[in-house]
Design brief:
Elements: E1 3-7, H1 14-23, E2 27-31, H2 34-37, E3 42-45, H3 51-60, H4 64-73, E4 78-81, H5 83-86, E5 91-92, E6 98-99, E7 106-110, E8 122-130, E9 144-150, E10 152-156, E11 162-166, E12 172-178, E13 181-184, H6 192-203
Parallel strand pairs: 1-2, 1-3, 3-4, 4-13, 5-7
Antiparallel strand pairs: 5-6, 7-10, 8-9, 8-11, 11-12, 12-13
Amino acid sequence: MRRVTIVDYGMGNLDSVARATEECGGDPLVTSSAKDLATADRIILPGVGAFGAGMRSLRELELEAPLHEQVIGRGVPCLGICLGMQLLAKTSDEGVDTAGLGWIDAEVERFVPTAQDRRIPHIGWNEVVFAQDSPLFAGIPSGRDFYFVHSYHVVCRNEADVIARTAYCGGFVSAVTRGLIFGVQFHPEKSQTVGFQVLRNFLTL
């Protein structure tokens, strides 16, 4: 059974992510300890809230460097969920100018309402349409609905990093990848069967 380290930096719905991970066959460990990262077979970076607060918390807990060592240095597969996906980017326009982890060449921007999609934040079920094949979505048809809660979205500079998009406020990137680094803007732990399949696929990479 794979040890899945779920990073606790005070910004996530950790219990539901841990329960879903266990149900999907992983051995979850919720932790804010850098030492625990060293034993991880997989790393999940969940998150709900503001980009700046999330990065400050990671740095105050001295987790940024150990995360970089494991994910970039050792190649441990990592999945960012919601805010966790946004933290993979280089910067965000949310609040103060705060640098992200920088693993994906991207910026995080606030949604601009359109005539068709006025409600911000974007809450509820919406289609995820694949931009390219990815093992993260193995066995899942393109266009299935996943559950979202967010006001900001990732804007990638490199289209090769984009694996899925969703039609809201003119369209946004709903999943990214670079090597064994993955990010999903939706909540797989709240997305029922298809969300759990995403987690199973991540555990088997």
